[in-house]
Every structure is written in C-alpha cells, then in structure tokens.
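Consider a typical record:
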Amino acid sequence: MHIMEGYLPGSWALFWWVVALPFFALGLRSLTRITQANPELKLLLALAGAFTFVLSALKLPSVTGSCSHPTGTGLGAVLFGPLAMSVLGTLVLLFQALLLAHGGLTTLGANAFSMAIAGPFAAYWIYHLMMRLTGKQKIAIFLAAALADLLTYLITSVQLALAFPSPVGGFIASFIKFAGIFAITQVPLAISEGLLTVLVWNWLQSYTPQELELLKLIKREPQHNESV
C-alpha cells in the first residue's frame, strides 16, 4: 500500500479516483449524521483517525513502488462503519502524502480504495459475521482488524497487477508475484495489528463506555440499588 506518486499509469490513477470518490461523498453524509445525532462522539472519531494515521505511517519497504505497514482502519470501521472510515482513511492518506511523502496525490484514489474503502468494509462485515457466529467480541475485533489489513494488501496487489501485467502469465502471474512479496511482511504485521486493536478496544471499554454504548457496541450492566 501507499503506492508512490507517479507510479501508476495515468489511466489507472484516474480510474481509481473515479471509483473512490462516490464512497468519500457517502462517507461525508455518514459522518454528518453521526456528529449531528451524537456530538459527544467527535473525540472518539478523532481517536479513530489518529489511530489510523499513526499505524499506517509505520512503513516497511516491500514491493518496488509500494510499502508494507499496518492500516489501523479496522477499529474505526467497527466503531463508526465503513463509510465514515472512507473519509477518515482518505484524509489520513492525503496528509501522509503531503507531509510524509507516503503515497502521492495521483495515486490517492488507488490508495484510498484499498486502505480506506476495501479494508474498512471487510472489517465491518467480518466483525458482524463473527459476532453472529461466535458472540466473542474480542475475537471478532482481532479478526476484523487483521483480515482487513490483509485484504488491503490483496487489493493493492490487484491494482499493481492490473497496471503492470507480467509479459508471461499476464495479470494472474503478476498478482501472485506482488501478493507473495507483500505476504512476507504483511502477515506478521496483520497479526500484530489485530492484537494491538484488541488492546485499544479494552482501553475504550474501560474509559469510554458511554460512547460505546451510544454506538450499541456494548451494553451497560444494570445497577442494582441496595436497600438500607
């Protein structure tokens, strides 16, 4: 992920911009509804964005023209939904491109689609599926964060393979090459991100239970008044 500035051919860079922009527009509507209905959630929104920024800024060199790093989008997707994260994630990528030279402006659409759209949607669906199947919230959080991280890099591998198909084997051969190289660094990173996200979730449960209750992610236990 973080495909660098100018690396994608112009036609593919434009294509991913066109694909990503509708999600960003819908995400703005989602964020507006969330903040208008519950203004007290703004700090939690900021925390989700900061978590994504910090984790995704920790990059390791991987495939030529790209890099490996945690994404941090799973937490925000579980808290606020994937559309909200499409905005937060895209803004994170924009600031990283401008301030840290991670990624680029021409490739922002491609990077946003993989990290801010595909990853959060995967995290959201995985979390709710695991909650239905197991009812174990921490397992659901771990899998949502870890698998969303891995899916982000699968999508990046698809983007690179589409733009640079192999002379022998075409798209499939190129995808296997990119995904295989990414896997060396990304699998342990995804596991680490899942564990860290669970730790942050535990912290949120301890210090922001009211906000999580508003989001219907936890149920506060009824308090029993003791008669004197």
Summary: The radius of gyration is 19 Å. The CA atoms of residues 127 and 140 lie 5 Å apart. Residues 170-207 form the longest helix (38 residues).
